[in-house]
Every structure is written in C-alpha cells, then in structure tokens.
Write a structure and sequence with these properties.
Strand order of the largest sheet of chain A: 2-5-8-11-14-17-19-20
Shape of chain A: globular
CATH architecture of chain A: 3 Solenoid
Order of helices and strands of chain A: HEEEEEEEEEEEEHEEEEEEEE
Strand order of the largest sheet of chain B: 2-5-8-11-14-17-20-21
CATH class of chain A: Mainly Beta
Number of domains of chain A: 1
Helix content of chain B: 10-25%
Oligomer: heterodimer
Structural class of chain B: alpha/beta
CATH topology of chain A: UDP N-Acetylglucosamine Acyltransferase, domain 1
Strand content of chain B: 25-35%
Distance between the termini of chain A: 39 Å
Number of strands of chain A: 20
Structural class of chain A: mainly beta
Radius of gyration of chain B: 19 Å
Order of helices and strands of chain B: HHEEEEEEEEEEEEEEEEEEEEEH
Number of strands of chain B: 21
Helix content of chain A: 10-25%
CATH superfamily of chain A: Hexapeptide repeat proteins
Chain lengths: ~180, ~210
C-alpha cells in the first residue's frame, strides 16, 4: 500500500515537473515516501528508479534539494536513495548511481564569508567547490559533506562525520574531519 | 506510601510541576496499556513518565525498565526503531531520556539510571528504513555489532554511539562525541570525533584540585 502511494506520488511529481518546472528533469520510476522540497531555478536532474524517503521513527523529515542560483546544478544518478538528505547547491553537486544518503547535509558553498559583513564568499569558483560523490557511496546519518570534496566509488562514510577533504574509493571514513579508518 | 507523601510535598511546593508529573504519568500509563494490548513485543514496566512523545516502530523486541522518564527536548521525544526481527533493545530502570533516537539491528543494552540528551544510538552503519528494503542497490545485511552501555552513564547531546561500543559504569560521553568501536572503561570521560582516548575522571578531578 505504502509502495503504491509512493509510486503515485512520484508520478504526480513527474507530471508537475513536466508541466510547470522545466528546469527539473525526473527519470522513470521515482518513488516518494516523504515530501520532496525543491526550490530555486537551477537545473536539477534525477535519474531512474530513485527513492525519496525519511528514516522511520523520525517525524518532520523530508528531502530538500535547493539550488541557490540559475547556474547551480544538482545531478542525481540512477537507483539512488535519499533518506532525509539535504542538498543545497550554488555551483554543482554530482551524485552517482546506487548511492545511499541518510539524514545528512551536502552543501557546496560556505554561504557566507568569515568577515564581519557576512556577504557572499568571493573566492569560490565552480572548479574549487564542485562536489562529486561516486557510484555506490553510502553516507551515514548526521554527517556533513562540505565544498570541494570528491568521494570515490563504493566508499562508506560513517554516521556523525564531517567530510572536509576528499576521500578515495572503496574505503571507510569517519570523524571530524573524516579520515580513512579500517573497518573492524 | 512514601511516594505518595513525596508527591503531596511536591504538590505543596510546586503545584504546576506536580500537575505536569501527573499528566506525564497518565500519558505514560496510556502508552504502556497501548503497547501491552497492541504490540506485545514492546514491554514497558509500569511507572512510565512521558513528558514528550515516544514512538516504537519495527519488528524487533523492546524492553524498558520501571520508572523511566522521557523529558522534553528541543527537537523531539524518544524514537526507537528496530530494523530486524531478531533485534533487541533493553533499557534499564530509572532512566531519564530526552530526544534519544535508537536504531537497532542486533542488540542494544542500556543499564539503569542513564541520563541522555539529544543523541543517536545506532548499532549499524546505515539505518535504512522499511522503504529502503525495497531498494535493491543496498546490501540488506550491513555489518552490525551489539552496543553495551553500563549503569549511571551520562550521554551528552549531539553525540553518536555507533556499532561495537561498550561503555562502562559511571562514564560520561561529552557533547558531540562519536564513539565508533570504542571501549570505554568504568568512570571515564570520552570526547572527540571519533573518540580515541578516554580520560579517567578520577584523574581529572585530581587535576582540578591541583589547579585550585
């Protein structure tokens, strides 16, 4: 029953995007278990067979995909599951195929400078701030991925970690800043 | 009888607090009855004080000792999710929990007299909900190891206790700590993300005395 409702919600979302929001491209078989909040007029691409959900037991959780300006870009691959993930992009976020992201934040900008004015940061660029998350990456709950990070294929980010530097492929990383550990 | 006299004394001193206590007890009693009737795999001992919401979901077993209290927190009440039919959550007596979310795949044992803030206790790496089981990309069997927390432990806010951690009696987990596979012995203070080197509290107290 829940699955059926999710499929129908996905179809309605697809239709709404086709009709009203030309900047959003949605693949086949999207399932919406929880609310999907999309804002901004950057380009957003969602692949086939994606799952949008929240972690069971937690209320008030929904997936947010924010693009902060026209040139911002979020790309999500096929078979990806976003569970209460919060993505906000000013430049570019690329999420690969078969990725599993739980209640964590991914943001490719600092939003403000450290100076007193708290203006828009000037030294950021697309090259230095783009986030790439490889295929088959799994990110645990309550973790944060910051700007300019590349996570290699098939690696696992533990819960509660802050990923501030790039992580190579097929490894396990945990901590603040996230470092590669050997999983016991 | 002594508890009744205590309550009367509380009522005289602080009527609003006593009313809140009564309301919490009533809410807790209804919750206990609900779980006894509807979900017998969740067992809550009788004096159960519920100041905030309390939710259990999933197919596993949950045992909660007597006179536990769920206090209001900035975010939410307590949510316990069992992700496997063989999962078991044991919570001891006299615990005060506020905003804890427990996600259990194998076994979580929590001793008596725990104080816990808004924290996450999770014995698996990923807590994929029932929605994710339809999702074929993720392997169903993630490595999970049991968590054991001793008696009289203080778990700070925003901390995560992850798989394989054992925490001894009378220990303190400070704010924002992430315990992954940590072995914390009795009467120690753990801090850091990830927590690597816990410090004995008796040593800390000695240091404080020296500074004075």
């Amino acid at each position: 029953m829940k699955d059926l409702v999710a499929v129908i919600r996905g179809k309605i979302f697809l239709l709404r995007c086709r009709l009203f929001r030309k900047n959003i491209r949605v693949g086949k078989g999207l399932r919406l278990y929880k609310r999907l909040d999309v804002r901004g007029d950057g380009t957003l691409t969602i692949g086939d067979n994606c799952v949008i959900g929240g972690i069971s037991g937690d209320r008030k959780q929904f997936v947010t995909l924010y693009t902060l300006n026209r040139n911002a870009r979020i790309e999500i691959g096929n078979n990806t599951g976003l569970f209460a993930a919060r993505l906000s992009s000013r430049y570019s976020i690329t999420v690969g195929h078969d990725v599993h992201i739980e209640a964590s934040g991914i943001m490719d900008t600092d939003f403000h400078t450290i100076e007193r004015g708290r203006g828009v940061p000037a030294n950021e660029s697309l090259e230095s701030c783009a986030i790439t998350i490889g295929n088959g990456v799994r990110i645990g709950a309550r973790s944060i991925v910051t700007k300019g990070v590349k996570i290699g294929d098939d690696s696992l980010i533990g819960p509660g970690s802050v990923v501030a530097r790039s992580i190579p492929g097929s490894c396990f990383a945990l901590g603040n800043p996230a470092k590669v550990m050997n999983p016991k | 009888m002594s508890s009744l006299s205590k309550f009367i004394r509380l009522f005289v001193a602080n009527p609003a607090g006593a009313a809140g206590l009564l309301k919490a007890l009533l809410r807790g009693t209804f919750t206990v009855l609900y779980y006894r009737l509807v979900q017998p795999r969740v067992r809550i001992a009788f004096p159960f004080f519920m100041y905030e919401t309390f939710r259990v979901s999933g197919p596993g077993k949950v045992f909660i000792g007597k006179s536990c209290a769920i206090y209001p927190n900035i975010f939410d009440g307590v949510s316990i999710v069992t992700l496997d039919p063989n999962a078991e959550v044991h919570i001891g007596a006299d615990c005060s929990l506020g905003g804890v979310s427990i996600r259990c795949r194998e076994r979580i044992e929590i001793g008596d007299r725990i104080m816990a803030g808004h924290s996450l206790i999770q014995d698996c790496m990923l807590a994929e909900g029932p929605t994710a089981q339809a999702h074929e990309a993720i392997p169903r069997k993630m490595p999970s190891r049991a968590i054991r927390i001793g008696r009289n432990v203080w778990v700070g806010a925003q901390s995560c206790i992850l798989c394989g951690s054992t925490i001894g009696d009378d220990s303190v987990i400070s704010l924002g700590t992430v315990c992954y596979d940590a072995e914390i012995e009795e009467y120690q203070l753990a801090s850091g993300n990830p927590s690597i080197r816990p410090v004995p509290i008796s040593k800390l107290i000695k240091l404080q005395d020296m500074r004075r």
